[in-house]
Amino acid sequence: MSTAKELAEKNGFTLACGDGLRQVQGVYCCDLLSIVMGRAPADSAWVTVMGNLNSIAVAVLADVACIVLAENMPLDADAQARAEAENVTVLRTSLPVFEAAVKMAQ
Question: Is the pTM for the entire model greater than 0.85?
Answer without folding.
Answer: yes
